[in-house]
Amino acid sequence: MGRLLYELGRIDERTRIANERGSSKMGKSSFSWAWELDGTQEERERGITMDIALQTLVTPHRVITILDAPGHKDFIPNMISGASQADSALLVVDAAVGEFEAGFERGGQTREHLLLVRSLGVSQVIVAVNKLDQVNWSGARYQEICELLKPFLLQSGFHPGKTRFVPVGAMEGVNLVRAEPAGSSLFQWYKGPSLVDLLDTLDPPTRDINAPLRFPISNVFKGQTSGITVSGRVCGGILVAGERLRIIPGDESATVRAIDNDGNGLPWAGAGDNVNLTLTGVDPISLNIGSVLCRASNIVPLASSFTARIIVFDIQVPITAGASVELFHHSRDVPASVSRLIAVLDRANGTVVKSKPRVLTKNMSAEVEISLRNSTYSGPASRALPIPLEPFSVNKEMGRILIRRNGETIGAGVVTELLT
Q1: CA 176 to chain centre
Q2: Residue 51 has what pLDDT?
Q3: Is the pLDDT of residue 44 over 80?
């Protein structure tokens, strides 16, 4: 992404040279382009993306907010946080022999990332096949990768009409912004659009600005001015600078002093916008990642138990009633259990195939009851704190969940009913 931002003029020459020198001093010169988005010392020393980085790029017909998400399996929770705020996905795969296969084999990150973004509501994906220079710009290798990915994308729920592939060589800037000239190695077998051409044709999603205001907090930090800054995506409605909002869970309220997007002050923000809010009149201890800002006249409900319709992924160990899991909802992850297996459903039409199944195995669709668990202590007196949730029928973005177990994503689905 760093090279793409440079080609589009989002990184100046002075910054490029500074990143190049800094990465060379660390012995990681090949990571110089990544330094624009990997801004922390630890990310730069380890040479991997660990947290979400936000940038903006402009194409002829689109203004696109980039959420650069981690690819490493140790930071999947952060990847989920970023994917939950996305409308479209740009998946970059390594064309080098052995590298693509490692990511695409069972348990690989390429598979998990595609399943995660689709489960979180992303329906458009562009696959950039990178590092083709390492395989001598082989058209056969590009086609091989495309043919392996296409059936998996279809199986994961991506419509073929909303899936695009593009060959690139990011380190050299090949086919990122403009089509390659005649006579180039890539032009010999590819004469299609560049990556920016495809980004420019992404379908903008519809925004429900008439819905009640919902703003899940994805990050909390001290801003450059007085007050505390929170970042996130507006999941419904409109928020206006100067208004006072409730913080759920809890009884606290805060005033929106300023709204910021990529350094530009805004008078208001609507559904779908990724923004920073500077809040005043609130104790910082009341602001937590996963909390939701809403209006006092229409407060987001809280729940510690709910029913959900889920799809079980390609798992080895079946899911049984009482199974301990980790529940992910936007940027929040909490301990939970699959307290009841209600029914196995037909994946095509949702009708009940079997009531009260004993176990759920891979690729099943099911209705289950999920209950939150107390993360600090156990026993009869323990009671899990509820979290902000809404049924999918009320607010799609507030009604999507993921469940993980032992570092593996085992299922995803939508909330159907809040119980307690």
Answers
A1: 23
A2: 65
A3: no
